[in-house]
Structure formats: structure tokens, C-alpha cells
């Protein structure tokens, strides 16, 4: 069971109690049309989960939420504002949250934040409509669940299930910027690209001032404060602006370039630094880690999960820089460039005519050679390349209406299917985990700024306005200001025998897999897949672990896997 959970039904308390006990939760609220329960140690702490009910109805906010003015209870604020402004009240709610609202005479709903940073799962079944934040708990209410072949194949080939899919046919999740009602899913229009007038919108100044306000909003949290710190750009701005972060943590060998760089940044701002050696805990896909992947994304992204005990012993609030590269630095925009001796060298311009499928094949965890080997060794009856290309094309088309140009459409689709969100899922269940990149003002900057200016250069100019010493210690693989110069130096180092190459930021998975005997420990009886790449083996282990933890599908079979006939059940 997770530490924090929201669970509800469209129906009364008797319907709710068919599925869950009230004793599992801190509070259970019933409105005219739904019943919703919440469990959260931070309930009613300002800026976090909140509940409120009066004679008109009830409201629950689950996650991190900030509202204008002096109101400390975001649920009470939303219930009051909805009476005046209707759905437009959601435009002002700021943070990483789910909002549940049920008012007499109005359509009850569950709404995501703008970018679906918190998942909401719901049942697609003739019975009562059940929703919640824990996929396994919502799935347990399905009388006769069946496996979703497409969702599983997308996960095995790319490391994520796209769109609304899960691994179960009757279990879906709300799409980006949407709400669930008793009648179905409605798309909202908060996350739509609307470029600003460049003469009236200074992109650097606006980003700097919005970063400052967003960090100030997130600076008052309980207990000792920590930061998951890399040697890169994104997390250091948090360390620079939040004064009382005492502990910084990096996963990696103490002598690795990434760890040494992070340690220098921590020392610069007077914080202690701890490096967690990447031992078996780094890759071990046990049930306590896999539950945070929610059956849709790789647990691999939860780099810190194996070290939770050490982290929770020291801090209560944990900061991170997740998705800053996506919203501020153009992670999903397609650069123009040229292939030089097998190495892609980007130009200082965007691709004028990118192929969306090719972009996402590169950005997501797809490898043609490894997927072909996976299909051959498991007997999966499909052409992986054709399957993945068609799946990506369909998902890109589903999000296309939110953007006026193809580069923004690429980013929108990438955000709607962000692979690394399990990283935050785990942190948010263990700590107060402020999510800087989801700040409403910063998302508005993202939507108003053209793709050519959502770059590392723009981001760093804004950061320097807040702290002109932010780059005292540069990332080890980015010694120069210009992206092209960094790429050229990296290429020269790789091709010159006497020069040391830049090290990748994460430990080598193949070495760890072999050193700690994960073939036998995770996939002992499935020798047919032992030779495939570690990342794909970890996906199989994730799938096996997640489904094994769910009694309702324990007897099901995936017939298109061979030798042994029941690799997952």
C-alpha cells in the first residue's frame, strides 16, 4: 500500500464501501453524486492536499496546489471559486495535483493538472465508475480484467504505454489536461500553445521572474530539506534559491565525473553531499519500486528508490529538477544537424520539417535491434518497427490540436507521454516533493515562448539573473557555453585515443546486471531472454512483478510469449 492515495466512486457511500474500507483513509467525503477518500500524511498542510465540504458539496485536492491570496485550504478555495467562475476556476489552480469536485446541481468531476503530472486511473466497466491514483487498487475493482496487448507491447518496446492505455483493457487513465465525469472524459483547454507578442514579452526576463516566484512558493515546507542533485543545470537553480536545503544526493560512484561535479555544486551553496554507490539497489526491480511505475512506465527512472531508507532518515522535504529540460530547454524539439562518422552533430537551429515518428523513436527508449531480438526470443507475433511507428503516429495525431506548429506539437506529445514521471511518483509518496516544472506561471511561459527560444541558453540567462555565479562549476560534459562546441569536444574525445571521453551521467546497466546476477535473480527460469539487453530485461521484470502483485490477473496468460509458455501472468 502506498503512503498517499486518492480513491473514489461516482456514487454514494454504500457504493464506495463495496470496494474499500473507510478505515484505510484519513478522510472520506460524500457529495451529491460521488464519494471520495484520501490518505496523506501532509493533509491540510498549506500548499498540499486538502479537503472541504459544506451544504453545497465537497472538494478534494490531492498533491501540491497553490491558490491566490491568503487562503490556506486549496479545496475550500476551489469550491468557492467554482460557484462564481465554473471550470475557469481550474485555470488559476497552480501545481501538481488532482482535483475532485461535486456540487449540487453541477456535473461532478475529477480533473488533472495541466500536464497530467499526477495520474488518475479509472475503470471502463459496466459497473460503478471507480477512479483513483493507485492503478493496482483501482484495477482490483474490475471483476474480470483482461490484458491490453497494445499497452504491454508499447511498454516492452519503448518503456511506456502511450495515451490513456494501461496494461489492462478495462483500466484507463485520464489524458493530459482533462477531466473525468460520470458521462466520460472531457478535454480541457488550459494546455494549448499560444505564442506571445515578442515585443511585449521578454522571454528571459519573464522566465527569471517566474522562476523566482515559483521557487519562493515552494520554499516553505516542513522538516529538513534535501535535493536530488545532478551535475547538470536543472537542479542547481533550486539549490541556489532555496536557502535551507542542507542535504544533496547523487547516485553514482564517488569518483565519477557526474558525482564530483554535483559535489562541487553542493559545496558552493554550503550543503552536504552524499553519493550513493550504484550497487544492486540501483536496478533491483522489486515490488516496492515497481508499484510506482503504475504499470505504464519503467521503474528504471526511479534511480533513488533503493536508497529510500537513508533518504527518509535525513529529510522530510525533497526537491528535484525533473522536467525542467522538457519545459524550459527544448528536450522534445527536433534539432537540425548532420551525421559525421556515425555521430549526430546538431546545428544551432531547429529542423524545419521534422518527422514526428523518427523524433520519438529517438527520444523514447526504442532500439530496433533490441526490439527485434526481444520479439524473436519471446515469440511476440508482431513487427516491432511497424507497430511502434503506428502507435507513435496515432498518439502524435491525438495531441496535434493543442499546437499551431509541428515543433510545439512534438513537445506537447512528449509532455503527454513523459517517460520519467515514476521518478516523481516515488518521491511524492515518500516526502513533500515540490515539483518546480509544473508551476502554472512557468507552464504559461512554456506555452507562450516559441520553440526556437526554449533553449538551454535562454534558461541559463534567466538563471544568471537570479544568481550570476550559477555556472561557477560547469557540468563535466558541457565545458562550453555553446551546444555545438560541447558536441564537437565530445566527438573529438571519443575519437582520440589519448583523450578521456565524457562519462555518461548514469551507471552502466550491463555491468551492474552481470555483477549482481540479475539474470538469475529476476528472470531465473526464463533463460530464453537472458541474452537480450539489460533495459529490455528490466522491462520484462517490471511487467512480471507488477502483474504478479495483482491477484486478479495472476491466472491470466500472455499466449504470444513462448518457452516457457507463461513468462508473465
CATH homologous group name of the largest domain:
HUPs
Strand order of the largest sheet: 2-3-1-9-8-10
Give Rg in angstroms.
Answer: 23 Å
Class derived from helix and strand content:
alpha+beta
Count of domains: 4
Number of strands: 18
**And the CATH topology of the largest domain?**
Rossmann fold
Describe the global form: globular
SS summary, helix count = 22
Q: Provide the CATH top-level class of the largest domain.
A: Alpha Beta
Tell me the major beta sheet.
6 strands, antiparallel
User: Cα distance, first to last residue?
Assistant: 21 Å
Strand content: 15-25%
Q: Any low-confidence stretches, pLDDT <50, length ≥5?
A: 559-569
For the structure shown, list the relevant keywords:
22 helices, 4 domains, Glutamine Phosphoribosylpyrophosphate, subunit 1, domain 1, single chain, 17% strand, 569 residues, 6-stranded antiparallel sheet, alpha+beta, Rossmann fold, disordered C terminus, Asparagine synthetase domain-containing protein
Amino acid at each position: 500500500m502506498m503512503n498517499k492515495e486518492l480513491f473514489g466512486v461516482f456514487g454514494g457511500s454504500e457504493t464506495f464501501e463495496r470496494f474499500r474500507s473507510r478505515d484505510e483513509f484519513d478522510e472520506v467525503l460524500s457529495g451529491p453524486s460521488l464519494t471520495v477518500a484520501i490518505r496523506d500524511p501532509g493533509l491540510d498542510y498549506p500548499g498540499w492536499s486538502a479537503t472541504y465540504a459544506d451544504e453545497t458539496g465537497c472538494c478534494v485536492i490531492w498533491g501540491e496546489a497553490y491558490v491566490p491570496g491568503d487562503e490556506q485550504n486549496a479545496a475550500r478555495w476551489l469550491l468557492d471559486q467554482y460557484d462564481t467562475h465554473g471550470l475557469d476556476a481550474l485555470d488559476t489552480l497552480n501545481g501538481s495535483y488532482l482535483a475532485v469536485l461535486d456540487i449540487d446541481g453541477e456535473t461532478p468531476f475529477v480533473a488533472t493538472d495541466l500536464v497530467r503530472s499526477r495520474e488518475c486511473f479509472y475503470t471502463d466497466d459496466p459497473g460503478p465508475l471507480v477512479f483513483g491514483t493507485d492503478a493496482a487498487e483501482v484495477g482490483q475493482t474490475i471483476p474480470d480484467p483482461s490484458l491490453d496487448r497494445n499497452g504491454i507491447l508499447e511498454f516492452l518496446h519503448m518503456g511506456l504505454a502511450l495515451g490513456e492505455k494501461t496494461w489492462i483493457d478495462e483500466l484507463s487513465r485520464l489524458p493530459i489536461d482533462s477531466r473525468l465525469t460520470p458521462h466520460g472524459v472531457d478535454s480541457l483547454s488550459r494546455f494549448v500553445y499560444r505564442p506571445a507578442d515578442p515585443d511585449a514579452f521578454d522571454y528571459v526576463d519573464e522566465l527569471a521572474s517566474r522562476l523566482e516566484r515559483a521557487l519562493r512558493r515552494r520554499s516553505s515546507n516542513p522538516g529538513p530539506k534535501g535535493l536530488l542533485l545532478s551535475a547538470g543545470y536543472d537542479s542547481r537553480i533550486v539549490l541556489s534559491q532555496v536557502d535551507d536545503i542542507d542535504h544533496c544526493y547523487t547516485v553514482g560512484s564517488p569518483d565519477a565525473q557526474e558525482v564530483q561535479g554535483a559535489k562541487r555544486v553542493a559545496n558552493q551553496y554550503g550543503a552536504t553531499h552524499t553519493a550513493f554507490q550504484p550497487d544492486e539497489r540501483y536496478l533491483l526491480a522489486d515490488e516496492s519500486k515497481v508499484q510506482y511505475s503504475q504499470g505504464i512506465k519503467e521503474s528504471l527512472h526511479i534511480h533513488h528508490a533503493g536508497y529510500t531508507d537513508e533518504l527518509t532518515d535525513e529529510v522530510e522535504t525533497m526537491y528535484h529538477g525533473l522536467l525542467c529540460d522538457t519545459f524550459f530547454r527544448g528536450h522534445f524539439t527536433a534539432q537540425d544537424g548532420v551525421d559525421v562518422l556515425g555521430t549526430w552533430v546538431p546545428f544551432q537551429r531547429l529542423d524545419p520539417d521534422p518527422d514526428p515518428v523518427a523524433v520519438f523513436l529517438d527520444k523514447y527508449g526504442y532500439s530496433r535491434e533490441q526490439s527485434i531480438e526481444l520479439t524473436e526470443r519471446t515469440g511476440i507475433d508482431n513487427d516491432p518497427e511497424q507497430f511502434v511507428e503506428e502507435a507513435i503516429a496515432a498518439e502524435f495525431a491525438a495531441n496535434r490540436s493543442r499546437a499551431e506548429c509541428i515543433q510545439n506539437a512534438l513537445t506537447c506529445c512528449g509532455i503527454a507521454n513523459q517517460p520519467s514521471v515514476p521518478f516523481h511518483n516515488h518521491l511524492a509518496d515518500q516526502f513533500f516533493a515540490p515539483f518546480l516544472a509544473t508551476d502554472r506561471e512557468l507552464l504559461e511561459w512554456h506555452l507562450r515562448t516559441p520553440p526556437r527560444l526554449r533553449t538551454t541558453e535562454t534558461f541559463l540567462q534567466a538563471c544568471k539573473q537570479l544568481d550570476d555565479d550559477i555556472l561557477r562549476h560547469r557540468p563535466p560534459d558541457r565545458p562550453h557555453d555553446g551546444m555545438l562546441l560541447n558536441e564537437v569536444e565530445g566527438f573529438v574525445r571519443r575519437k582520440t585515443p589519448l583523450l578521456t571521453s565524457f562519462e555518461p551521467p548514469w551507471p552502466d546497466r550491463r555491468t551492474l546486471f552481470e555483477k549482481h546476477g540479475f539474470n538469475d535473480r529476476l528472470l531465473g527460469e526464463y533463460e530464453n531472454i537472458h541474452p537480450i539487453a539489460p533495459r529490455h530485461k528490466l522491462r520484462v521484470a517490471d511487467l512480471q512483478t507488477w502483474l504478479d502483485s495483482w491477484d486478479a490477473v495472476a491466472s491470466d496468460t500472455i499466449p504470444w510469449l513462448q518457452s516457457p509458455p507463461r513468462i508473465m501472468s
